[in-house]
Amino acid sequence: MLLDPFFLRALAAGLGVALVTGPLGSFVVWRRMAYFGDTLSHSALLGIALGFLLGINLNLGILLVCAAVAVLLVAVRHRQGLASDTVLGILAHSSLSLGLVAIAFTEGLRVDLMGYLFGDILAVGTADLYWIFGGGAVVLGGLLAVWRPLLSATLHEELARVEGVRTLAVQLAFMGLVALTIALAMQIIGILLVTSMLIIPAAAARAFARTPEQMAAVAALIGGLAVLGGLAGAFRWDLPAGPSIVVAAALLFTATTLLPRAYRP
Q: What is the pTM of this model?
């Protein structure tokens, strides 16, 4: 069964997503933007509803909504008022609820909400693989292009601005890459779990990395191991694949935190 075409497609899709979420998730961890990732992933359901209502590609709908939320968050950050975590909480739960309500009001539409919320990696087809690897190449290329200025802004935003880094443009580019990654990973592990693949492998990789580049590479490796272990466990015990991948990632993170310091680089 492990050599069946649908399993191999699922494995390829999962590894493709892990290759992207590892490096990008490292910046999410460094910049303490885990809640921001949750907000974008929750807004993805509103993008799906928009796609159905307008008759456009669902991935395009997700990108449009996530991009709008990202720009709104940047605008809010530069204004006085509510704390960032409060605004993020409002946007996250409001957009998720709006998406559910919009789908419920769409007559004659039958939507597999469980598939969108928790993923359906075993249903990945060849066309989905093209989307995942093509989009993943765009994300990695974009991340490579902004790596140095983004790293500088992450370490010290004010100093980076003095050195000529256009921090607002870099921040918007990074948020756009996160939005595209969420659109890529949604089918794999679902809207409610996608942020975990950005955070958990990157957090686990910190124990083994001495440089940012090493952490990005190790995070991608740990994400790949989580995909392999999660899919194997799902087949072995007849479990939902998406949550199994996240559980495998959590187990790897736990193992790295318990690893004696003598075995760390």
A: 0.88
